[in-house]
Amino acid sequence: MILCSDPKKQYLVYRKPIREAIQRVLDSGWYILGNEVKSFEAEFAKYIGVKEAVGVGSGTEALHLALVACGIGKGDEVITVAHTAVATVAAIELTGATPVFVDIEPEFYTIDPKKIQAAITERTKAIIPVHMYGQSAEMGAILEIAKANKFKVIEDCAQAHGALYKGKRVGSLGEMGCFSFYPTKNLGAIGDGGMVVTNNPDLAKQVRLLREYGWAERYVSHVSGWNSRLDEIQAAVLRVKLKHLNKDNAKRVRLAKKYTKELKDLPFKLPRQREGCVPVHHLYVARTEDRNALLSFVKERKVGALIHYPVPIHQQPAYTKFKRSDLPETEKAAKEILSLPMYPELSESDFKKIIKAIKEFFQG
Ligand SMILES: *Cc1c(COP(=O)(O)O)cnc(C)c1O
């Protein structure tokens, strides 16, 4: 089976430095919040182009911590999309706040700025745009609306490490940026991990307190926090991979171009690039009304295509309380989208097999 993403292949490419990094941590005897996390935070902040980066337990936790650091909690509303990983909404709920869903732009799969105004109430405290599939949301318009209405922008960058919006890396545009290092992400650990980035030193300080029981010094809590730390082994491995992120993202971009070239004449809507943006193609998502038939057809030919995501959040069993009928583009996308295998190490022969299977479906 050709997998949709294949983190083991990346491990094999960087096997030697990854093993050395892990060994270095084992030998150090320091396994939580040490030099590796500190160095990785500095290196990642520099890469994104922000003052501060704070390593945390996961992408969900990055969002949760960022929201709490911004003072968001019970009684507040946070605007976001229902076309996202459930983590975005789980993080909002963890704070006690209520997620308010806005529909997506169908060609980019990111929040539709034209529809944000109608979702704003006096309880709106923040917006979480999700840079879906590796491409930035329309940040210019989003930042303007947020400024005019005095609420915070917290970017969900879990699928977009290194993506650019008008020359700036996503994560550096809003008040805070939140990253996941889940193994299949563009920058992936060998377990869970996440990062909060910001140019605001006070917010960074708050996240540092919250991620470790509110400690400003050992054993003395200054705020009510909890435990959500990035561990040393994950940080050491991520330091190895960060050095190669631009090169690996460039490989994804090249692969996306190859897909587009091969598939452009089929009745298959291919990903579009937003003007002024450089995407990093976390996924290559195309759409067709024949999606379900195409998915089973290519699966029989050992192409592990997937759907990201098959059920919009407001239609999932856990979230029936958020049921609503004004998200037509979100619901339509969920029925038509298909993610084709996308990772830097995808071989030419596998690529040919994928193209062959898709062409056979459409052209017989
Ligand atoms: C992966 C992902 C997350 C959550 O990250 P975890 O590290 O798995 O908690 C959040 N938002 C989006 C859009 C994601 O793709």
Describe this structure in words.
The chain is of the alpha/beta class. The chain has 2 domains: 7-102 and 109-242, Aspartate Aminotransferase, domain 2 (3-Layer(aba) Sandwich), CATH 3.40.640.10; 245-363, Aspartate Aminotransferase, domain 1, CATH 3.90.1150.10. It contains 12 helices and 14 strands. The chain has helices at 7-13, 15-28, 35-48, 59-69, 86-94, 139-149, 201-210, 232-242, 245-263, 291-300, 328-336, 348-363, and strands spanning 52-56, 77-80, 98-101, 124-127, 152-156, 164-165, 168-169, 176-180, 194-198, 215-217, 220-221, 277-278, 284-287, 337-340. The strands form 4 sheets. A 7-stranded mixed beta sheet has the order 1-9-8-5-4-2-3, with helices on both faces. Strands 7-6-12 form a 3-stranded antiparallel beta sheet, with no helix packed on it. A two-stranded antiparallel ribbon has the order 10-11. Helix 3 (35-48) runs parallel beside helix 8 (232-242) and helix 4 (59-69) packs across helix 7 (201-210). The model has no long low-confidence stretch (mean pLDDT 97).
Structurally, the number of domains stands at: 2
Strand content: 5-15%
CATH architecture term of the largest domain: 3-Layer(aba) Sandwich
CATH class assignment of the largest domain: Alpha Beta
H/E order of the elements? HHHEHEHEEHEEEEEHEEHHEEHHEH
Unreliable segments (pLDDT under 50, ≥5 consecutive)?
none
The 3D shape can be described as: globular
Average of per-residue pLDDT values: 97
Classify the secondary structure makeup into a structural class.
alpha/beta
Q: How large, in whole angstroms, is the Cα Rg?
A: 20 Å
If you consult CATH, what is the topology of the largest domain?
Aspartate Aminotransferase, domain 2
- Small molecules (ligands, ions, cofactors) in the structure: pyridoxal-5'-phosphate
